[in-house]
Structures are given as structure tokens and as C-alpha cells.
Amino acid sequence: MTSTIEQPYTDGYWDAADGLRLHFRDYPGDAAALPVLCLPGLTRNARDFAALAEALAGPRRLLALDFRGRGDSDYAKDWSTYAPATYAADVLALLDQQGIERFVSIGTSLGGIVTSLIAAQAPERLAGAVLNDIGPELEEAGRLRIMDYLGTGGSFPTWVHAARHLADQHGDVHPGWALEGWLAYAKRVMAIGPGGRIAFDYDMKIAEPFRMAPDGSPPDMWPAFEALGGRPLVLVRGSQSDLLSRATAAQMQQRIVGLELVEIEGVGHAPTLDEPQARTAIAQLLEKAK
């Protein structure tokens, strides 16, 4: 007799303004507590937050999103909609459809940019935020590294092959990881395709807006970042990050009084948020958010 392990979440879906069906994982919790939305990085998806979600859910509801073009969300017919402003609009549509008036955001990289845009557009919705290794200015080295692998595709016959590829490509980000760590990472960012091969779980066309931009950099994000002021705010930074510099992090602290900076030693872009320092900071922020 085969036993089944009950998953700690249900799969939810919402409709974007342009008709795309988008996916989120819904971890149940106390309806009276502020819910948490986990917004992933550029090539990542809801699976990236699985361990964090299981640790946080229960006392509060937690939703982990797949942005359009990732995971179980629809791919966009128009690749120009793969843009932070559209992702922010998609998140606001989810909030409306779920009846969520206020929430705490945990945003990794792109997810942090989207969080800042929501703070600028609908400040009353955001009760607090964790920005994971992202700021208003992107370092050239990190941006070029991302552009080098973004949208290149590729597939692998086994999870071990996929893990070794990721270790070769991103070894500097997590230098302390053994094969087991890279296998877990592979299962977060890849999926088994129709032909049985393992491939990245995102639409390769998300790279097109980067290729079309004259220098690949976003517009001035400082005003959106400053809109995060006046609420609990944590900035997590990998000490070896090539995307968020120490100088930018320090300037962020100067512009928003009370911003808590947590630096994860020996990690690049981006921390997993499973690190003890990150977990402690997140738990303390959730206690402060009202």
C-alpha cells in the first residue's frame, strides 16, 4: 500500500489583467494575522521559498508566487510584459482577488524591486518588507553575469548533471555547497520536461527585455526604494554579492532610518533566506509589522 505525503500548501491561481493564469502556493495560517507574500528572483519561482514558507506558515498565511513566465504560471504572449511594472500590477491583482488589504513582502532580487514598486504605487498595502540582496542600484559585474546566462536554456539527462551544471555556473555564489546543496537548488529552478529531460523552469523570452535595453539597467529606482520608509524593513545582503554593493547598502541605510542590514558571510547573489541570521531577522520583522 502506497502512502501519500500531504503537502503543506494548496495550489492557487489568479487572473492577470491581460488574461494570463498565474500560480501561487497558498500556505494556510491565522486569518487575523498579516499575510506574507514571497516574491522570487528573476529566474526563480515559488519553490524557492519552500523551507521558509513551512517555517513561517501557521501563525500567518503565506503566499509564494510564480511570476508570469515562471513555474506553473502562464507564459506571456508578449515578452515585453516581462517587466517589473507588470509584475507589480499582477501582484496587486492577486491582492484584490484574494481580498488581502495589507501584507508583508519578502522579495528576492527581482521580487525586491517589485516590492519597491508596490510601495510607491500602493503604500497602504505594504506593512513591512524584506529585500533579499537587491537595491536601487545594480552593480555592473552582477548585471553582466546574469545577462550571460539568462535565457540560454539547455537541458540535462539527470538531476546530477543539472546540479553539476549549476555548480559550474554559480559556484562563486555558494562556495560552501556540496553536491547535495546543488541538487536541492536544481530542483528549485528546474523541472522535468515532456521529453523526460530536465530544464530551467522559466520562459527563455524573459531575457528579451534585457537584450533590448540600451545598457540593461533599470530606471532610477531610488524614489521607489524610498517609498519603503516608515515601516519595518530588512535588507539581506550576501557578503560576496556582485549585484548589491556595500556602498549601495550603506546608502540605503542612510536614506531610510531604521533599515536593518543583515549580511550573510561567504555568500554571493543571493542568500537562500534559510541562513540563521536571515531567519532571525525575518521573524523579528514579522513581530514588528502591524
Oligomer: single chain
> Using DSSP, what is the number of strands?
11
Name of the level-1 CATH class of the domain at 10-139 and 219-288? Alpha Beta
Total of DSSP H or I helical runs spanning 4+ residues: 10
Key features of this structure:
single chain, 290 residues, alpha/beta, Rossmann fold, eight-stranded mixed sheet, three-stranded antiparallel sheet, 10 helices, 11 strands
Please give a structural write-up.
- The chain has a domain at 10-139 and 219-288: Rossmann fold, CATH 3.40.50.
- The protein contains 10 helices and 11 strands.
- The chain has helices spanning 50-56, 84-98, 110-121, 140-149, 159-170, 179-189, 208-212, 222-226, 246-255, 276-288, and strands spanning 10-15, 21-27, 36-39, 62-65, 103-108, 126-132, 155-156, 190-192, 198-200, 233-238, 260-264.
- Helix 5 crosses helix 6 (179-189).
- The mean pLDDT is 94.
Ordered list of secondary-structure elements with their pairings:
Layout lengths: L9 E6 L5 E7 L8 E4 L10 H7 L5 E4 L18 H15 L4 E6 L1 H12 L4 E7 L7 H10 L5 E2 L2 H12 L8 H11 E3 L5 E3 L7 H5 L9 H5 L6 E6 L7 H10 L4 E5 L11 H13 L2
Parallel strand pairs: 3-4, 3-5, 5-6, 6-10, 10-11
Antiparallel strand pairs: 1-2, 2-4, 7-9, 8-9
